[in-house]
Design goal:
This protein is mostly helical and 125 residues long. The protein contains 6 helices and no strands. The longest helix is centred in the last third of the chain and has 23 residues.
């Protein structure tokens, strides 16, 4: 069975939203570059930095990913329910959750390094 994956634009939006607190200019530039390669416009990139999307399903997916990163069971349950109502499939939510956890761990690893920054570009995809 073929494993499905997130669309390039949603993947880029998730990375922007979940790594928005990163102060590393190199990482931020890489994220924006990858987002443009995924077809995002400047306005879409700005929205993603703020945890939003102009696409309703993508916005629900970003909300869910941010809830996963918060590790709040209530926030996760509420955002999962909203995402399902917005039309995301359970398989998509599983992929978003896995990506959110991966990005959260990347953020934690970067913060634990001397200076608190790291090249998150090592594993953004």
């Amino acid at each position: 069975m073929k494993r499905s994956s997130l669309s390039p634009s949603l993947n880029a939006q998730l990375a922007l939203a979940l790594l928005a607190r990163c102060a590393c200019c190199v990482t931020r530039e890489k994220l924006e570059h990858d987002a443009r390669l995924a077809g995002l416009t400047g306005a879409e990139i700005d929205a993603a930095w703020m945890g939003r999307s102009f696409d309703v399903k993508h916005s629900a997916a970003i909300d869910f990913a941010l809830a996963v990163r918060s590790f709040s069971e209530i926030a996760i349950a509420n955002s999962r329910s909203k995402a399902l109502r917005m039309g995301l499939a359970l398989e998509e939510l599983d992929l978003v959750e896995a990506r959110a956890l991966e990005l959260a761990m990347l953020e934690i690893a970067a913060a634990s390094r001397p200076g608190g920054t790291a090249s998150a570009g090592k594993r953004l995809h």
